[in-house]
Structures are given as C-alpha cells and as structure tokens.
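As a warm-up, study this chain.
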Amino acid sequence: MGTIYSHSRLSSFENCPKQFEFRYVLKVPSASEGVEAFVGKRVHEVLERLYLFVGKGQIPGIEKVVDRYHKLWEETYDPERVRIVRENTPLSYYRQLGEDCLRGYYLRHYPFDDSETLGLEKRVVFPLDDAGEYRMQGIIDRISRARDGAIEIHDYKTGARVPSQRILDQDRQLALYQLGLARTYGDDTEFRLVWHYVAKNRTCVSTRTKDDLAQLRTETIARIDEIQAATEFPARKISLCGWCEYKDRCPLWASPEDLARIEAEDAAARAEKRETGARAPEPADDSQLSLL
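Now compare it with the structure written out below.
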C-alpha cells in the first residue's frame, strides 16, 4: 500500500515544500515545539477527558476541569523543548490562555447536553478513489449526533484568529473528515462542520453539498499527484517560519557554515533512503498541528 496522506501533510507541502521534505521525506526528528501547540494539546486533552465523564453521566465542576489542565501542564511542560516565539510574551500568558479557553468553553456549553458524543479523538482512514490508491487519514476531536439527527464534526482551535465564513466554507480538513465518516453514516446523512475557536469563545459552522465534496476529492487527488511527482522541495518564506521546528536547518535561515553541514547530512540521508528503501516511522498525523 502507498502513502496515507493527511490534511497536515498536504498543508505542509503547500506552505513550504522544504518543511515537507524535512518532516515527511527525510523524517528529521523534531527537537522542539511552539508553546502555542503545547497549549493546544493540553486543552484538547482536557476537553477529551471532560466529554468522557459527560458520557458516563458525570459532569465535573469547572474548577476540577481547570485543575486537571494545570496538572497536565506541570506533568508535560519541558522548558528545553517548548519554544516561545513571540518576544516579550511570558510563559504565564500562555498558561493563562489555556485556562481561559477551557473556562469559556465550559460556560458556553454546560451542561453539555446539546448533542450525543459518538467519538473522541477518533482516527479515520479512508480512500478518495474506488481503487483505494489515494488514501487519507485524520484525527477528529469530537463526533456527535445533534438533536436534529445531523452528524457534527467538531474541531477545537486555540489560535487567536477566527477565519471569515467564506474561508470556513472552503476549509479542507473537516470536509475530508466528512468524506471519511460518510462511509460509516451514509452519503445522504446530514453533516455539520463545527469549529470551536475557544480563545475567542466563538463557534462557527459550515456545511458541504455533494458537488462540493466531489470537487474536494478531485482537488485533493490532484494535490497528491503533484506531491508524488515532486523531486525538488524549495524553501518558502512565510509568516509561520518562526514556529517551524526546522528553521535552524532551513536554507533561508541557517548560517552558511551550518547550512553546508546540514546539506551534507541531508544528502547522505537521501542516498541511504534510495539504497535501502527503508521506511522510517511516519510522523503522527495530528490535527492539533494546525493550531496557529
């Protein structure tokens, strides 16, 4: 079987082919992560735990939810690994941000009876074509059945920016998840795509027509074909470069001395890959990677 693609993998190639090469071709281990991603993961973990209790008929108080968040922070925070990119922004700001996100979400959705939870952090793998040559995967934060019977695909975002409705209506990630879930719930099932921008305490919703989904299949297959055919992976300077885990080895940012050493290491890695054909473990397909 060939490579299983994901929204994160596709976005990496679109944003910066060089980052894609480091992460998915050369499989260079990441030595750090941005503090925004760290906060997002802790918020996701707490919300997953909250809905597990709700599913058992137990609703923990808001202070218990916040206390769990701070305990997770203490257990997982590593100052050697977590990077703060924005200058003059203290760590305490980010820690409080996560707490504020959880408090706002809790108060907005309590007592969490607006829908029935069907899945939490659910991994889906599905083909885009009948032959199964183009396969996708993803992790869905929460799947629920609303009171009107619609299947809702939920995604938690801790970033400060809330996209316009026009952008959300063109979003690929959750629409791809709909393609996957339609194989379980049926193509004629009503789906809603739901984003929770917890830092802004806003919920946004979008839907897709069958024509929209057909076009998405076609465009995604074309993008995969483009990636499969790529032999060069040029670096691209974008606004997110500061958060890239490979900035210190990027030709646009590394010093000439470091770049010469890195290029030699990468050339050796490519040669070894060609000679052995060995496959290193794939990076985790993590929907939480796109938190900015």
